[in-house]
Design goal:
Elements: E1 2-5, H1 16-30, E2 35-38, H2 48-56, E3 59-66, E4 72-80, E5 85-89, H3 91-94, H4 112-122, E6 128-132, H5 143-148, E7 152-154, H6 168-171, E8 174-176, E9 185-190, H7 202-206, H8 217-234, H9 251-256, E10 260-265, H10 266-274, H11 276-282, E11 285-292, H12 302-313, E12 317-322, E13 333-337, H13 347-364
Parallel strand pairs: 1-2, 1-11, 5-6, 6-9, 9-10, 11-12, 12-13
Antiparallel strand pairs: 3-4, 4-5, 7-8
Length: about 375
Amino acid sequence: MNWLISPNAFKGTIEADEAAEIIKRAILEVNPNDQVQTCPIADGGDGTCFLLSEILGLEKIHETAGDPLGSPKEGFFSLEPSTKTAFLDVSTVSGIKWLREVERDPWVCSTYGTGELILAALERGVEQVVIGLGGSATVDMGLGMLQALGISFLNDKGREIRPFTPDMILKIKHIQLSPKLPTIKFTFLCDVNNYFFGENGAIPVFGPQKGLKEEDKEKFEKASAALFQLLQKKSRKPLRDQAGFGAAGGIALGISAFFESELLPGAPYFFQKVGIPEKLKWADVVLTGEGKYDMQSAQGKGSYELMRMAKQEKTPIWLISAGEEGKNAGFDRYIQLPDLDFAMAGFELRAKENLFNVVKEAASS
């Protein structure tokens, strides 16, 4: 039997590539003569471009850039020379994972460091940048990236506001474009459909996890709306809020005001780049998984999108996940993981043991 092993990350416990190897080992322990091919997947969430670069074997270029608060952080991007494309994740240097909870502050945190990585890529002749939007620490509409790329934001006295200035979004009154803006195309990969504004927008939905206090939501929304109007006036093309602009605190929104850009669902893009359609034709069974399959999973997450493609190929697909919601999600078989106590020491090791054991049992039956 030919097995295609394509899990997403099991968030908080196991990365996608490690999960794929654990699943492979479990299957081969029971069926040593079967053929197993691993191709872990991502959908625009944290680490998408890193995983894509690993699968494609792209060269990594390491550069120092600012983290969400401006401290030096070792970052990197990957190069695809044949297409003059760089791949990078916002989370590489501008990720929430670099901040302690008390440091999370959307009034200060910036994507400037990600802009610095893009500048370094431009120096190597890059003409396109593909950016995974998951795991950001900011709600800055990409202002930090724009600053790094040569756009200045001025206060009411016409003075430039420096990156990482506290309450920067409240102080911006004018936007000044550099006559030497780089020519570059952006492709943004996301796994959510939220608009930037509105009751399901970036500020009320994602703001709290990035440190926005309940009493500041309305103030931040008004400041963002005022900035959006300035961006609309300065942009050389119509600029409207759209589905997906809520991802990563509105990065795609701000960048699209001044640069050629497209916003794509991460999973289909990823699948095409790594050749999932061809792999599905080879496979007799596909095994995917994620930490906890839920209602959001069916809005563009990797496991759901892979199921849709497998159904088109009439290839059976199994899902591994925790909780009950995956049982009736349309997969041919559901393999349920035991619940984890995340307060327990060594829960990561327990998660890996659980994954191995449930797959081994399923492959035996």
